[in-house]
């Protein structure tokens, strides 16, 4: 969609707007992914910010569900309020902490219903009165007649509310509200009035991460002249409207499971109230100290700082492409820079996986690791486009989490420092290994390797005790056994790669052997990965389309999971009888004529092209597998179809959950012309570019430029490739070639070149020799 059409006609909101000609942020459309199953949010945040402040539009009264996992959905026409924590593209609902809503006149304590205007503090809005860009969001609340603007620093969200002249200005704080579940999520919460302009509090919840503690500090730009602190659950309500300074000491604090606060500011002469909200995982005092990150009340200056932070982050890549692709590419980079998110107070304190407070030494603790998704492309992308310091923070955060884990293992799917146990694998391992293989310094490699092997050898997790004994996960003893076996095998290979580079042959040999375990569940007779029982027999009957949760596969079927041995694609080629066998199988994946109802019961199976499901991660590398069978021209054709059908520059422009940036990272890499099929290999399979020109401005000060000649829909195939002026015969690009700087040039043409990249010597790395 075109943001120009959504600029405010409201003079007050336009008064604070910035004019940034030809900025990279101008090419970001934060509404991409807010419709359909993208699950992104349009609100204000800094790169990897701890505060991600955004409107919540959920339509249900007390309970939330999957379509509103990010709080906001573009199809809705009313806003519940503005909360300070969100996931970008997750497939699970949670967060939505510290929801504020400005209202004029009568104070209403219930949110009301979207189909019944004025039934509560909820307000209708129109997209024509909505504007957003990286680090900034604005909207007009039609029912409340309030203009809202939001911006943020790393730990602080800043609101600016403009009320109509003469209106009584009020702000609702609803601690019952959350994206996950209003009625039963809160274990305990607290509200405390501190003086005439500050409120602090906390909430402990039992959502996706049980026992999560979130503390906050709210400061208003004007003195509070009336307030209520309410415990709605117990029916014990304090409705004193006395001046806060005269309120009895025992009436300035309320605790319970269903708290609300209302704060009145009379009728401000200029109609403006600003609010700063800082969050902390440690304490109310920590949140108060975090407020100092944003001194003063200059909203426009803070908006400029947020804008400049995004300009600096997006400056890692300069892109020249047709307008829709340019918007999609820059928006993909934007989404890729939201997580993992900071989860540490300004003084270095953070809450770890043991739910205890720790002190960071020499790094910034980050959380929100959606590792099953993001180990594939997001983290490899961040090794290219983020300064080394941030990637060191990520690796050290993972290692410190392992030290503090009650189980002694690396995070699986972590947020707010806590483990959710969502998804499978031990995919912090390839994130660390890939960073090490690419030369990242700043962490102790021996310490990291110990953390990695501790995770790979923790028997009680996910059937690992059986995997280590039998060489596979048996389906009669552990669910999703086929998927777990092949994912463990890949993770094991990345351990071997890192240990090998470190000179630890004892570890490397052990894990190279374990990396071959995928063969134990591959059935040459059917050509699929299958679940095997503890007696060594494949489970029967076998249906390759079967895809129920808790069965043989994780969020997929044999058609999606049988090609997940990215470290050993030559081994897969041999299992399938040679190059033609792999090509035929992958052709069947894409060309199958299936009834969409086959996968209708699976929320995460979306973006279907035959059995290929681009809306979920197990399929993401599959189009690139033709390179390993000497047919990169087929990869090029499939990529053209995927990009055209699975992405666009509208709110429903993502085929599935963005999953904390993985869906976006896939497009960012693919648009440049290459993709990290096997993180840890230091290689990228070459596909085909979708941009006319792109330059990676690398952290080491060098530049790597991708240039495309003859880019058009009529030229979907690569005719030739040169690297630094010399012909490139192989269908693979090496990491060291990128970071050395230089130029990669593609010449596109109408007909495929079936010889380029065909020779075994010109194919990407794989563990088994061709």
From TrEMBL:
Which keywords has UniProt assigned to this entry?
Glycosidase, Hydrolase, Signal
Domain Glycosyl hydrolase family 92 N-terminal stretches: 28-280
Q: Taxonomically, which superkingdom? A: Bacteria
The entry lists its GO molecular-function terms as: hydrolase activity, acting on glycosyl bonds
Pfam families assigned: Glyco_hydro_92 (PF07971), Glyco_hydro_92N (PF17678)
Please name the InterPro entries in this protein's record. 6-hairpin_glycosidase_sf (IPR008928), GH-type_carb-bd (IPR014718), GH92_a_mannosidase_put (IPR005887), GH92_N (IPR041371), Glyco_hydro_92 (IPR012939), PNGase (IPR050883)
Q: Per the record's keyword annotation, is ATP-binding included, yes or no?
A: no
Question: What protein is this chain from?
Answer: GH92 family glycosyl hydrolase
Signal sequence coordinates: 1-21
The organism encoding this protein is Telluria mixta
- Which residues does the UniProt record annotate as the domain Glycosyl hydrolase family? 287-749
**The keyword Hydrolase appears for this protein:** yes
Recorded E.C. number(s)?
3.2.1.-
- Which PANTHER family does the UniProt record give? PEPTIDE N-GLYCANASE PNGASE -RELATED, SECRETED PROTEIN
Enzyme type, top EC level: hydrolase
Q: What is the lineage of its organism?
A: Bacteria, Pseudomonadati, Pseudomonadota, Betaproteobacteria, Burkholderiales
């Amino acid at each position: 969609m075109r943001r120009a059409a959504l600029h405010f006609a409201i003079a007050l909101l336009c008064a604070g707007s910035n004019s940034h000609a030809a900025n990279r942020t101008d090419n970001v459309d934060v509404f991409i992914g807010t419709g359909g199953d993208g699950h992104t949010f349009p609100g204000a945040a800094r790169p990897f910010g701890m505060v991600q402040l955004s409107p919540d539009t959920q339509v249900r009264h007390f309970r939330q569900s999957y379509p509103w996992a990010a709080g906001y959905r573009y199809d809705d026409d009313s806003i519940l309020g503005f909360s300070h924590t969100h996931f970008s593209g997750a497939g699970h609902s949670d967060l939505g902490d510290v929801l504020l809503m400005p209202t004029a006149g009568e104070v209403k304590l219930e949110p009301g219903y979207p189909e019944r205007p004025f039934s509560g503090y909820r307000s209708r809005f129109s997209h024509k009165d909505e504007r957003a860009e990286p680090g900034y969001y604005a909207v007009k609340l039609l029912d409340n007649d309030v203009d809202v603007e939001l911006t943020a620093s790393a730990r602080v969200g800043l609101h600016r509310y403009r009320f109509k002249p003469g209106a009584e200005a009020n702000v609702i704080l609803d601690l019952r509200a959350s994206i996950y579940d209003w009625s039963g999520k809160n274990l305990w919460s607290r509200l405390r009035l501190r003086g005439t302009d500050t409120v602090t509090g906390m909430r402990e919840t039992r959502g996706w991460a049980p026992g999560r503690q979130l503390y906050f500090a709210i400061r208003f730009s004007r003195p509070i002249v009336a307030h209520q602190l309410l415990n709605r659950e117990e029916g014990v309500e304090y409705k004193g409207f006395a001046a806060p300074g005269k309120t009895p000491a025992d009436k300035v604090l309320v605790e319970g499971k269903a708290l609300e606060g209302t704060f009145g500011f009379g009728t401000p002469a200029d109609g403006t109230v600003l609010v700063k909200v800082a969050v902390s995982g440690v304490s109310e005092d920590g949140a108060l100290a975090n407020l100092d990150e944003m001194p003063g009340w200059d909203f426009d200056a803070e908006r400029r700082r947020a804008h400049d932070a995004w300009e600096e982050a997006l400056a890692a890549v300069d892109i020249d492409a047709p307008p829709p692709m340019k918007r999609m590419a820059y928006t993909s980079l934007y989404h890729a820079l939201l997580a993992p998110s900071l989860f540490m107070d300004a003084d270095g304190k953070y809450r770890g996986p043991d739910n205890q407070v720790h002190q960071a030494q020499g790094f910034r603790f980050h959380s929100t690791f959606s590792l099953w998704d993001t180990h594939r492309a997001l983290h490899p992308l961040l090794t290219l486009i983020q300064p080394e310091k941030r990637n060191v923070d990520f690796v050290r955060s993972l290692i410190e989490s392992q030290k503090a884990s009650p189980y002694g293992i690396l995070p699986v799917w972590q947020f707010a420092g806590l483990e959710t146990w969502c998804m499978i694998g031990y995919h912090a391992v390839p994130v660390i290994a890939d960073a090490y293989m690419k030369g990242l310094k700043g962490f102790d490699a021996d310490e990291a390797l110990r953390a990695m092997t501790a995770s790979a050898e923790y028997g009680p997790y996910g059937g690992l005790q059986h995997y280590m004994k039998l060489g596979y996960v048996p389906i009669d003893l552990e669910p999703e056994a086929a998927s777990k076996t092949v994912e463990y095998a890949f993770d094991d290979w990345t351990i071997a790669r890192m240990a090998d580079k470190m000179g630890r042959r004892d570890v490397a040999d052990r894990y190279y052997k374990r990396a071959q375990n995928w063969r134990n569940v591959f059935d040459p007779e059917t050509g699929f990965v299958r679940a095997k029982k503890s007696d060594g027999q494949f489970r029967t009957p076998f249906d390759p389309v079967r895809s129920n949760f808790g069965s043989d596969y994780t969020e997929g079927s044999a058609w999606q999971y049988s090609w997940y041995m990215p470290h050993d694609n030559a081994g897969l080629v041999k299992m399938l009888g040679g190059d033609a066998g792999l090509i035929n199988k992958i052709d069947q994946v894409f060309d199958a004529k299936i009834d969409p109802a086959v996968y209708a019961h699976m929320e995460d199976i979306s973006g279907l092209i035959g059995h290929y499901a681009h809306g979920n991660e197990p399929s993401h590398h599959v189009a690139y597998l033709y390179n390993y069978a000497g047919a990169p021209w087929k990869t090029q054709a499939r990529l053209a179809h995927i990009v055209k059908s699975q992405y666009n520059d509208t709110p429903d422009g993502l085929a599935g959950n963005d999953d904390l940036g993985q869906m976006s990272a896939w497009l960012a890499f693919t648009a440049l012309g290459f993709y990290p099929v096997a993180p840890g290999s230091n290689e990228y399979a070459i596909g085909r570019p979708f941009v006319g020109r792109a330059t990676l401005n690398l952290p080491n000060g060098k530049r790597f430029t991708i240039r495309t000649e003859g880019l058009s829909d009529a030229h979907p195939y690569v005719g030739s490739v040169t690297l630094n002026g010399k012909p490139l015969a192989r269908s693979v690009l090496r990491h060291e070639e990128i970071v050395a700087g230089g130029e990669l040039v593609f010449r596109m043409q109408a007909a495929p070149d079936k010889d380029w990249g065909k020779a075994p010597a010109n194919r990407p790395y794989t563990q088994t020799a061709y």
